[in-house]
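Need tokens for this chain, all 57 residues.
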Amino acid sequence: MSETLSLGVHRRDLYLLRDQGQFEVLDRGLYRQADMPHLRYLILFTLRRRFPAGSSA
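Here are the structure tokens for all 57 residues:
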């Protein structure tokens, strides 16, 4: 979400799109368009976003 906010999109607009069913929540702060094909390895994608290479947990 922080990337989207830094581009000038307001948090309330994201929530509105989510509530209208246009966005789906994948994980905390991670959204995708509802009409996109499902990711085959969704868990790997969300983990990669949460723990980028080189970060320490």
